[in-house]
Design brief:
The complex is a heterotetramer of chains A (320), B (343), C (503) and D (314). Chain A has 320 residues and is mainly α. Chain A has helices at residues 2-6, 10-26, 33-42, 44-58, 66-82, 87-111, 116-135, 148-152, 160-178, 180-190, 192-197, 202-228, 240-250, 262-281, 286-313; strands at 154-155, 158-159. In chain A, helix 4 (44-58) packs parallel to helix 9, helix 5 (66-82) runs antiparallel to helix 6 and helix 5 crosses helix 12. Chain B has a seven-stranded mixed sheet, with helices on both faces. In chain B, strands 7-6-8-9 form a four-stranded parallel sheet, with helices on both faces. Chain B has a two-stranded antiparallel ribbon with strand order 10-15. The N and C termini of chain B lie far apart (59 Å). The chains are: A mainly alpha (320), B alpha/beta (343), C alpha/beta (503), D mainly alpha (314).
Chain lengths: 320, 343, 503, 314
């Protein structure tokens, strides 16, 4: 038990379980296989985007533009489909556009060395403008039947998007935990100057991370478009960046970089998803939903902070 | 302190410049601003709630067509989000441009009061469309019908479809949006009066976010297994509800036709759902015609002409004028006529 | 002996306006421990930085195993077999000890780019064990390790590169005495394996214990290289400081007063340890302890940076000190050990730094009194002889000594009664050191009570009226004026109980 | 000589760059649009920039101190609606205003308590507050706009004095007052000091907690004042007011040359940055440029400004 408590994600695990139990008691509809599937299903794009945001935050940065990138890619996919392009090719092209957006961010951040927050604030405006511009103000909708597969299809009896998310999570857990590239991200975020001394190029890693984030957002947007069935360029992914950042930080990440895991982030997303779903299932007045969500986010952060303090106290040895 | 002084000086300088500029350019502008005379460059500002949604894009087309037909200039613009204060800033900017009339779909009926008063003071014609701002200086309100009528129509549609009893949920774009509140209140009142066995279980809001609307609909059918109907009060809600219901039916968690859906949505967006029967009836009006009528009325006003009941507006047809309200009428979209709409 | 593994010839290094090294020759043979000595500012650190690939020399050649070479970066130097262990850790505190040792190393990567964690952990544990760090779990994150364990990780990291040449910069500074012994064991083992070690330290005793040769630098010039048998402590000091040796510590010509200004009673350092002592008016009380003894915590407690239990009496009155603000109100001033992090705000001017603690007193109501601030700042610039063209210059451009004087000056302006000085001359050159010592003396003579916390033994011995020795959170010995020498002091601070009967 | 110039002198150079940019925008739009260069239009713009401007004052200070407050928009709405509800309950309008301001202070205090006292990450806490307060706004009045305030109250946001909008005069007065504080008082030294090196300020016997707390209280207060002015200008208190205003405020601050990592920046710069974005918007509106392109232009400008700063700074 004590070992368990020392796991970095311990507080959020416990808190998530507590909230889960609370909802299960309040509403009999909550703790059901169907509903759990539903929660996962509703948050697929969040899960995927949050992987990218985890890496960005590990490097000590933040990406405010993910929502706008989602809008650009989803709109492009819609346009391609409207041109009668095969769904798979349209999806791949859309993902390519996501990568391109990531490269734009990466270029300004890693090469031109402009602070992340400024670049992504700017590209947030720019990409959103482009998205609405190319959409011509109309909705992307009436997608061909073949495109539905990405958001609603089944493979081996499992939801296809869920499968994609699981694969991506596995790949990135592996990447961050087991490869040099992944460990470099932790090293740079943990101690930039020591990383430099060890010959690690922060610029390369940063560029790569923003490109990968673009890729992930691209994938998420294809699933998003297919699942929701329609894309409105002006509002798609509007509050995505804040929500995803909150999820990463709730999952134990630190805004100063170097700390956080994909697993923790996924818990963070799950936590937010459970709250949103649970509040509605529990038939809470709609006016209270946002207020309660915000309160629980703050509570989660408070708990995280307490854990950090507790861990620092447990430092080995001397008086210093 | 030096820097502040420097800044202020620049400001003063700029204002000075502005003052000179204003004097210099007055003769030019003055000509345009003269009311009513039949100069060929009459300019109107058409201001929807926001830019982006398909509904307003369709309206823009109608406004542009009116501009061509009437040989006037129409500027069509709004903030990217349905934000009252940004909308008003934009109207103020346009008043500076000395347009001859403004057609506004206010995000907040009360908040446009002051800017309308100012416009009226400049003898700019004011017409609200799609959403009204009563008790302001607006001259006419152009709408398909009143919010109350639309709300009642939606309630009646769903009431008939589900046979007069059962649970119904409302999906709105924003909990704070005036026209959404008015319509949903009217629908509730209609149920209370005509279908006492219908219970409105909840109202969920998407904040105009498609994904959130989608998640809301998912949560609704999950939370209320015996739900019989959903009314979507804004363009994004019915397709989200239909998508979710269709997927649930496909997955076998919901019986076909268990949940009836109706609402306000552009036909092109819900075409597929209407064709395969997920939505039986969709209430809409042609936003293009609405905008066309608005520009037409503005132009009539600017030329000092009368607005009369039953007057014929080209491409729109005869309109009903009731006091200061102009109604172009609503349309019911069903599987039979869905292909006949071009918006 | 065989061929030298490393030869440096005619090494010079110039920075804009400063010649840090001129024409230094240096030879290093396999299997020798070569001590590099010199006062701060003598050029030691520049030479080390050239050797480890941080700087390129302006002139001169480096030959490694007979071949002329150059180091493009620290990593390049490491790959060529020259590793350095810095005094300040370069660790990723968010990563495990093992990963720190083998960060970004291709040899730990297996198929599919997979890092071989078990191999990595095993190798790391083996390395750490081999230098007496057996109690360290290399899977733990470094931020959970204590300072000395972190140092062991640093050493293991350097060793992991199969180093031919190992530079150790003040390796014992952070280690407790028993660890120093273990570290010597490692050094001896490495020497036996033929690794050449450059050992940089101020600690005479260690030099004589471990080194084979010693090279002394002064003012960027090499004075001499000698075999350790050919030198004594006295002659080494002579070589290092030149003729200034006698004037470094001014003669104490006044006795401290009788009245007790500060009385500390059972002041807790952590849950298990507490200290009690008294400080008299005009007294310089030295507080000495090896790192980890708690001397730093004493300062933190007195200045309200850390809370705990126990009584603090100032002029006989109980004082509650829960924040630095409380301490300041009780006329306690604190010159912290790390001036870059705790002492000066670099982009700000000397004047702004000097006036920072005193701004409430230098304001008329809410508005700053520019005139008084300028006069105050100019007064202390002059009093402390801070060398700068103007007090509106940013402190970033000052030398270490002058920066330190700014930190002292900003507290003197508050007219404190008790001044806590911690490592007042760290990273300060000899000339400035002497000046700062003079300032300390003058202040004591003017009646200021000073608590001097320092890890430099000569400083503590040379300045203090009394010395308290702290060991693992307890005061274990008190030396009266003139009673202590370096050997005794170190002994008491290292393992007091071996001597028996002190407590 | 140049080496002796401290980092602070760079600031004035930067301000010059921004002033040139502003002037360029003014001249450009004067040429492009015959309607731009007129007193009425300028007064209009002044009237519109007040809310963003008021919040930009504490935001500049907070960013200089190395933190950020993303909850300002929600605080604005919370205060505005609190005031409206109080008035609806029959409370005197000026007392209601007081209640609105108190509500803002309270939100600021919560932020300050968590961030200053418990050293939590400012961005995270304020995102949480952003969501929670916006939710509470809907709880308070179920999302219905509140209007029907007495005419005396509209003075704040709608009255012109000598041809100049009263709220703009108030904004300039606030900027001058804040500039005075950020130049002439010790508070400013503390704020810049914390932004550069928080530890040193703490080790100088100054309560960093108190300074940070005050900053977030100020942020709450000014957001509330902005809310009151907004209600007065629009004659209506809405649940959605102030949504995304934090982005405008931060953009103005950054274009104004304040460094995102703290330690450097000035209110004068923010004021110029504010003028740049409002005149840009106004000019583009007058030209009938769609808001879509406006967003793109604003983003590009931000990148340019930040990139340019790299060039002549650091």
């Amino acid at each position: 038990m004590k070992r368990l408590l020392n796991v970095h994600e311990a507080p959020i695990i416990i808190f998530t379980i507590a909230v889960f139990l609370l909802f299960s008691v309040i509403s009999p509809d909550f703790f059901q296989l169907d509903n759990i599937k539903l929660i996962l299903d509703q948050n697929i794009s969040m899960f995927i985007v949050a992987i990218g945001m985890t890496m960005v935050i590990l490097l000590g940065g933040m990406d405010l533009s993910v929502g706008s990138v989602l809008a650009v890619t989803a709109t492009s996919v819609g346009l391609f489909l409207g041109q009668g392009i095969h769904p798979w090719i349209a999806a791949l092209m859309g993902i390519g556009i996501g990568v391109l957006c990531g490269m734009v961010n990466g270029y300004f951040i890693a090469v031109r060395k402009i602070p992340d927050i400024i670049v992504t604030l700017a590209t947030m405006y720019i990409f959103r403008g482009i998205a609405v511009g190319i959409s011509g103000g109309t909705w992307m909708t009436n997608f061909p039947e073949g495109f539905r597969f990405f958001g609603q299809g089944q493979l081996l009896g499992i939801s296809f998007p869920l499968l994609i998310a699981v694969v991506l999570i596995a790949v990135f857990v592996y990447l961050l935990k087991f490869t040099r590239s992944g460990r470099k991200i932790y090293a740079i975020g943990g101690n930039g100057s020591a990383a430099k001394l060890a010959g690690i190029s922060a610029a390369k890693s940063k560029f790569m991370v923003y490109v990968l984030t673009g890729l992930l957002v691209g994938i998420a947007s294809v699933i998003f478009a297919s699942k929701v069935g329609s894309v409105q360029a002006s509002t798609a992914g509007n509050s995505l960046s804040f929500e995803v950042m909150a999820a990463v930080l709730i999952g134990g990440g630190s805004i100063f970089g170097g700390v956080g895991t994909v697993a923790g982030t996924m818990l963070g997303v799950l936590f937010m998803g459970i709250i949103k779903n649970g509040l509605i299932i529990s038939k809470v007045s709609p006016f209270w939903v946002d207020a309660t969500t915000g309160f629980l986010i703050i509570l989660a952060i408070v708990i995280n902070t307490l854990q950090r303090i507790r861990q620092n106290k447990g430092k080995e040895g001397d008086l210093i | 302190m030096k820097k502040v002084a420097l800044t202020l000086m620049t400001g003063v300088l700029a204002l000075g410049l502005a003052a000179c500029g204003a004097n210099g350019s007055q003769p030019n502008v003055g000509g345009d601003a003269n009311q009513g005379s039949s100069t060929d460059a009459r300019t109107y500002f058409m201001n929807p709630k926001s830019i982006g949604p398909a509904y307003w894009a369709a309206a823009e087309k109608g406004a542009k067509r009116a501009a061509d037909d009437l040989n006037v200039e129409v500027l069509f613009n709004a903030p990217t989000e349905a934000d009252s204060s940004k909308q008003i800033n934009m109207i103020q900017d346009m008043l500076t441009r000395k347009v001859d009339g403004i057609g506004v779909s206010p995000n907040d009926a009360k908040a446009v009061g002051p800017v309308f008063k100012k416009a009226a003071g400049q003898d700019v014609k004011i017409v609200t469309w799609d959403s009204d701002a009563p008790e302001t200086d607006r001259q006419y309100y152009v709408a398909p019908a009143t919010d109350q009528e639309v709300g009642e129509l939606l309630a009646r549609t769903i009431g008939e479809e589900i046979g007069g009893s059962g649970k119904v949920a409302f999906m709105v774009a924003g909990l704070g949006s005036q026209n959404q509140i008015a319509k949903s209140d009217a629908a509730k009142a209609y149920f209370a009066a005509n279908y006492p066995d219908i219970e409105v279980v909840t109202t969920v809001a998407s904040d105009d976010d498609q994904q959130k609307a989608y998640a809301n609909a998912q949560n609704l059918i999950k939370t209320y297994p015996e739900l019989r109907g959903i009314i979507g009060f804004a363009g994004g809600e019915p397709p989200a509800a239909a998508e979710v219901v269709e997927q649930a039916v496909k997955a076998g968690t919901l019986e076909k036709n268990q949940i009836a859906i109706t609402g306000i949505a552009v036909p092109s967006v819900v075409k597929n759902y209407i064709k395969n029967g997920t939505i039986k009836t969709d209430i809409i009006w042609d936003p293009g015609k609405l905008a066309y009528a608005t520009v037409y009325i503005l132009d009539q006003l600017a030329q000092g002409k009368e607005i009369t009941d039953g007057m014929e507006i080209p491409t729109v047809g005869a309109v009903k004028v009731d006091g200061q309200n102009v109604f172009i009428g609503t349309l019911e979209v069903t599987a039979d006529n869905v292909d006949s709409f071009d918006f | 002996m065989s061929q030298p593994v490393l030869t440096m010839e005619g090494i010079s290094k110039e920075f804009p306006g400063v010649k840090a090294l001129s024409g230094v020759n240096f030879e290093l043979f396999p299997g020798e421990v070569h001590a590099l000595m010199g006062e701060n500012g003598a050029g030691k650190s520049t030479l080390m930085k050239i050797l480890s690939g941080v700087y390129a020399p302006t002139q001169g050649t480096i030959r490694l195993k007979g071949k002329e070479t150059s180091f493009r970066s620290p990593l390049d130097a490491q790959r060529q077999g020259v590793s350095i262990i810095h005094q300040e850790f370069n660790l990723f505190t968010n990563l495990s000890a093992a990963e720190n040792i083998f960060i970004d190393r291709p040899e730990m990567v297996g198929r599919f780019g997979r890092i071989q964690w078990s191999k990595l952990y095993n190798e790391a544990q083996r390395l750490v064990d081999s230098i007496g760090g057996g109690e360290i779990d290399v899977r733990r994150e470094v931020r959970h390790l204590g300072v000395h364990s972190q140092q062991v990780v640093e050493i293991a990291k350097a060793l992991s590169f199969q180093a031919d040449v190992l530079i150790m910069d003040e390796p014992s500074a952070a280690l407790p005495e028993n660890e120093v012994k273990k570290m010597f064991d490692v050094v001896n083992r490495l020497r036996a394996q033929g690794v050449a070690i450059v050992y940089v330290s101020h600690r005479m005793k260690e030099i004589f214990e471990i080194a084979d040769k010693v090279t002394v630098l002064r003012d960027g010039v090499k004075i001499d290289t000698r075999s350790i048998e050919d030198v004594t402590e006295q002659s080494l000091i002579q070589m290092m400081v030149g003729k200034e040796v006698h004037r470094l510590y001014p003669v104490r010509d006044q006795e401290p007063g009788e009245e007790t200004v500060l009385k500390v009673d059972r002041l807790s350092l952590d849950s298990a340890h507490a200290v009690s002592f008294e400080l008299r008016k005009g007294e310089i009380l030295g507080l000495f302890g090896v790192p980890g003894s708690g001397s730093h915590t004493v300062a933190e407690r007195l200045f309200g940076l850390k809370r705990g239990t126990g009584d603090i009496l100032i002029n006989g009155k109980a004082a509650r000190i829960n924040s630095p603000g409380d301490a300041k109100a009780r006329k306690i001033a604190y010159v912290p050990p790390d001036r870059h992090r705790q002492g000066i705000i670099k982009p700000m001017s000397i004047r702004q730094n000097l006036s920072l603690p005193m701004l409430p007193q230098l304001s008329k109501g809410l508005v700053l009194d520019r005139g008084r601030i300028r006069r105050m700042s100019e007064e202390y610039m002059e009093k402390l002889r801070i060398k700068a063209p103007s007090d509106e210059q940013s402190v970033d451009f000052l030398s270490g000594g002058n920066q330190q004087k700014v930190v002292i000056g900003k507290w003197l302006a508050s007219k404190p009664e008790i001044l806590i000085l911690e490592e007042p001359t760290r990273g300060v050159d000899v000339g400035a050191k002497a000046e700062i010592y003079n300032i300390i003396h003058r202040l004591a003579r003017e009646g200021l009570s000073i608590l001097l916390i320092s890890s430099e033994m000569p400083e503590v011995i040379g300045l203090s009226d009394r010395i308290l020795v702290l060991y693992k959170g307890e005061i274990v010995h008190e030396f009266a004026h003139g009673e202590a020498d370096q050997e005794q002091l170190l002994q008491r601070a290292s393992h007091p109980r071996l001597e028996g009967g002190i407590l | 000589m140049s080496a002796w110039l401290s980092g602070f002198s760079l600031k004035s150079n930067k301000l010059l760059v921004q002033l040139v940019l502003l002037l360029f925008i003014l001249v450009l739009f004067s040429i492009l649009s015959p309607y731009f260069l007129s007193v009425a239009n300028f007064m209009n713009v002044l009237n519109q920039m007040v809310e963003v401007g008021l919040i930009a004052i504490p935001m500049t200070m907070i960013i200089i101190s190395g933190a950020m407050d993303l909850s300002v928009g929600s605080i604005l709405a919370f205060s505005a609606v609190s005031m409206g509800v109080a008035y609806q309950q029959g409370v005197n309008i000026w007392v209601s205003v007081g209640i609105g301001l108190l509500a803002g202070l309270l939100c600021g205090a919560v932020n300050g308590y968590l961030i200053a006292r418990h050293r939590m990450q400012a961005i995270v806490v304020t995102i949480g507050m952003l969501v929670m307060l916006r939710g509470l706004v809907y709880v308070i009045n179920e999302g219905r706009p509140i209007s029907g305030f007495p005419d005396a109250f509209y003075f704040l946001g709608q009255q012109y004095i000598g041809g100049i909008p009263f709220n703009a005069i108030f904004l300039v007065a606030m900027f001058l007052l804040a500039s005075f504080v950020m130049k002439k008082t010790r508070f400013s030294t503390y704020v810049y000091g914390i932004g550069n090196n928080e530890e040193v300020v703490r080790y100088s016997g100054i309560s960093v907690v108190r300074v940070r707390f005050i900053l977030f209280m100020l942020s709450g207060l000014f957001s509330a004042i902005a809310g009151v002015f907004l209600v007065s200008r629009l004659a209506s208190a809405e649940a959605t007011s102030g949504t995304n205003i934090e982005l405008d405020v931060i953009t103005a601050t950054l274009i104004g040359g304040t460094h995102i990592f703290g330690g450097r920046g000035s209110l004068a710069g923010t004021f110029v940055g504010l003028l740049i974005i409002v005149f840009l918007r106004n000019g583009l509106n007058l030209l009938g440029v769609s808001v879509l392109y406006q967003a793109v232009i604003l983003g590009a400008l931000l990148l340019l400004a930040a990139g340019n700063k790299k060039f002549n700074g650091e």
